[in-house]
Design a protein that fits this description.
About 45% of the residues lie in helices and about 15% in strands. It is of the alpha/beta class and about 450 residues long. The protein folds into two domains: about 150 residues, Orthogonal Bundle (DNAb Helicase, Chain A); about 260 residues, P-loop containing nucleotide triphosphate hydrolases (Rossmann fold). The strands form two sheets. A nine-stranded mixed sheet has the order 3-2-4-5-1-6-7-8-9. The protein has a two-stranded antiparallel sheet with strand order 10-11. The longest helix has 28 residues. The protein is elongated, with a radius of gyration of 29 Å. The chain starts with 14 loop residues before the first helix and ends with a strand.
């Protein structure tokens, strides 16, 4: 639903605005130059009076390559079925009498400002009707009201698409003088940063794994790195673990105290001091954890829209995709596809990277090496299509394995860089994965890595 779809009652524009509309359109139906100038500043929907229908007909004439003049505009109005609605030829004659050519830009500012006022009132009326309706969905309806108000407040005319010269100059300037701070959010592991230097705004990053392989650990590591170590406003939507469990994991990872000791309340005094020190950092970090079983896309969007007014999110982590509820669909596959697409669109709408955790199906267990593939993402192939990058987790759970304690992060897809495999050390007793340092050569010929 958009503002243009809503009816409006009780709104009265000033006589000056109606006069401005008539002056603009009176000139536009007689002069291509005037029409071009007005079309760069206004849309037909910006007009309150019948002049908007005449303006739309004039644009039709221009789009068809015909000469813009009252006769051709009248013909276009007839073709649109709007000629009688506007009052026929006499109304066009009245517009011509009011035509103004020298100050279209100034008049357009008045029309645009009044159109914005009208749209704000439309949004408010719609919100009032929604709150008095017998059916009220807090997440979806609040987000719709915020969306309508944002659309009304930010809708602007008069901005023509620009050429690439300015952007190209800015790009060359960046290349010559690289910014000291990388755009986006750095991933939590240094080797991963070689493949994905940054989780970029507008990007959807999918982390997939079988149960208990560490996808939540990667999600929490990403949130810790962003909020606590980079100072980036981060929101974690957890559909599986209550907020307390997430904070227990973060506390263990930040303090280096075993997670089981924290859960069982068996920490020593020195460990308690380390947890307290970590707690100070955690409390000071711009981190929000939202425990939302059955979370919907509407809830996430509403949260991000609300934060836009105070502290816009710099990173979103969703744990995990398979537990989200989507719009009604014929199959779970279609439902997940819709959720995935909405997350990608949301990343662009709020200019924020989204890290979405996803469970893999059982196919890796049928393979000799048990290594996952991108096609193993559960429920929908649309997830891999929407994602800017797909990271799959693989580790050998055999304690006797020569690679016990190592975890492979397989970058199977990377829209903005290379793919590859990097290793991190598993320190699940501290609820974290950590960087590895090369020391020895593994039998496979790749570096054998040890936790730093």
């Amino acid at each position: 639903m958009s503002l243009d779809d809503l009816t409006l009652t009780g709104f009265t524009p000033s006589p000056a605005v109606i006069a401005a509309e008539m002056a603009i359109v009176g000139a536009a139906i007689q002069s291509k130059a005037a029409l071009d100038e007005a079309a760069a500043l206004l849309t037909p929907e910006d007009f309150y009076s019948e002049a908007g229908m005449v303006f739309a007909a004039a644009q039709d004439v221009l789009a068809d390559g015909r000469t813009v003049e009252p006769a051709t505009v009248m013909g276009a109005l007839q073709a649109r079925g709007d000629l009688l609605k506007v009052g026929g030829g006499p109304y066009l004659g009245k517009l011509i009498e009011h035509a103004a050519y020298g100050n279209i830009a100034t008049l357009a500012e008045d029309v645009s400002a009044d159109a914005q006022r009208r749209r704000v009132q439309q949004a408010c009326q719609r919100g009032a009707r929604m709150t008095t309706s017998g059916v009220w969905d807090p997440d979806a309806d609040l987000d719709m009201i915020r969306k309508l108000l944002d659309e009304a407040a930010t809708r602007r005319t008069g901005e023509m698409p620009s050429g690439v010269a300015d952007e190209m100059a800015a790009l060359l300037e960046e290349l010559e003088n690289p910014p000291t701070v990388q755009a986006g959010v750095a991933p939590p592991y240094k080797d991963l940063q070689r493949l994905i230097p940054s989780f970029l705004p507008g990007g959807l990053y999918v982390v997939g794994a079988r149960p208990s392989y560490g996808k939540s650990t990667v999600g929490v590591d990403a949130a810790r790195e962003a909020a606590i170590h980079q100072g980036i406003d981060t929101v974690v939507f957890t559909l599986e673990m209550p907020k307390k469990q997430v904070l227990q994991r973060i506390s263990a990872a930040e303090s280096g105290v075993q997670l089981t000791s924290i859960i069982e309340h068996t920490v020593t005094r020195s460990e308690l001091e380390r947890i307290t020190d970590a707690g100070v950092r955690i409390c000071a970090a711009p981190l929000t954890v939202d425990y939302a079983p059955g979370c919907t896309v509407d809830r996430i969007r509403a949260t991000l829209r609300s934060k836009m007014r105070t502290s816009p999110a710099g990173l979103v982590v969703v744990d995990y995709l398979g537990l989200m509820r989507g719009p009604r669909a014929e199959s779970r596959q279609q439902e997940v596809a819709a959720i995935s697409r909405e997350l990608k669109l949301m990343a662009g709408e709020f200019d924020v990277p989204i890290v979405a955790l996803s469970q893999l199906n059982r196919k890796p267990e049928d393979r000799a090496d048990r290594k996952p593939q991108m096609s193993d993402l559960r429920d929908s192939g649309a997830v891999e299509q929407d994602a800017d990058a797909v990271i799959l987790i693989h580790r050998d759970k055999d304690p006797e394995s020569p690679r016990a304690g190592e975890v492979d992060l397989i970058v199977e897809k990377n829209r903005n860089g290379p793919t590859g495999v990097i290793a991190v050390a598993s320190q699940l007793h501290y609820a974290r994965f950590v960087d590895m340092a090369p020391n020895h050569t593994a039998p496979s010929g790749r570096p054998n890595l040890r936790a730093v």
